[in-house]
Amino acid sequence: MQIETGRDVFRLAQVFTISRGSRTEAQVLTVRLSDDGHRGWGECVPYARYGESLDSVEAQIAGLPEAFDRAALAELLPPGAARNAVDCALWDMQAKRAGRRVWDLAGLPAPGPEITAYTLSLDTPEAMRAQAARHAHRPLLKIKLGTPDDMARLEAVRAGAPDARIIVDANEGWSGEVYADLAPHLRRLGVALVEQPLPAGEDDALLGMERPVPVCADEACHDRASLSALRGKYDVVNIKLDKTGGLTEALALREAARAEGYGIMVGCMVGSSLAMAPATLVAQGAAVVDLDGPLLLAEDRDHALKFDERGVHPPDAALWG
């Protein structure tokens, strides 16, 4: 099997800011596999928060042997971006070889569209109110927060989009004290869920703390091995393929998390439609879907995913799977 990697850059439609910083483009790694005339591809977004870079991910992939399957890949690479791109490329190649869709190979029902969140970038309250007003027609908005003075931003977004369902992502930016102060107001303002309010390494503070709004583990949940440390702290887990290491583990994590009583959110890094395509399978029936990466881009892959009033649609075979 031949493995090729390439770096692709997609311009963002506007500056995108979270509590850790801002960006104007999405830098992704594209993996292409070929074997016996069949080809498959996948995409990952290395994340510095997890010690990843384009260089480190390329090096991991370059170290793979010439022959392996998805089961072997799980032993060869740890959960993370590198394994994600290769795992999804293997699924794509298997589907093309079989002439069948990935969901058939995985024993899943044919997927349909799912309503996805649209993310509002962290900004001043006035700017965030304006963002919210521009996107008030969308049924689900996600707010990037994570500073000690977020109350004004929350009020501004609710004023700008009075009828939208809202979820909040603090990106580990709050302390236990800040979260405890904000939690009652999250409920008052109709927030449906809050993602990772505290740093993953400091989330024991959530034990015994009142959670008037469901709390979702993001940075604290990568794969099935993460679940045992989440008990008593979180109500929902955010499954991202760049954390799980691909579609294979993402599907397994979804089933394991449901069995333990967690709600399911399916999220993404800022990437192209190729990165979102496998995640649309995991997103079926999820409580919250956040696969808006392509909506934040000024440019995308050919045969891009379709987004409409019904949500994000599963991929065309010309894109993936």
What does this structure look like?
With 321 residues, this protein is an alpha/beta fold. Helices cover 31% and strands 23% of the residues. It is built from 10 helices and 13 strands. The chain has helices at 54-62, 70-76, 81-98, 102-105, 125-134, 151-160, 176-188, 241-244, 247-259, 273-282; strands at residues 2-18, 21-35, 38-44, 118-120, 140-144, 165-169, 191-195, 215-217, 236-239, 263-266, 288-289, 307-308, 311-312. It has an 8-stranded parallel sheet with strand order 4-5-6-7-8-9-10-11. It starts with a strand and ends in a 9-residue tail after the last strand.
**Ends distance:** 18 Å
Proportion of residues in extended strands: 15-25%
- Percent range of helical residues: 25-40%
Oligomer type: single chain
Q: Structural class, judged by helices and strands?
A: alpha/beta
Coarse shape: globular
Mean pLDDT: 95
Going across the biggest sheet, name each strand in turn.
4-5-6-7-8-9-10-11
The value of Rg in angstroms is 19 Å
What low-confidence regions span 5 or more consecutive residues with pLDDT below 50?
A: none
Output the number of helix runs.
10
Overall strand count:
13
Largest sheet: 8 strands, parallel
**SSE sequence, one letter per element:** EEEHHHHEHEHEHEEEHHEHEEE
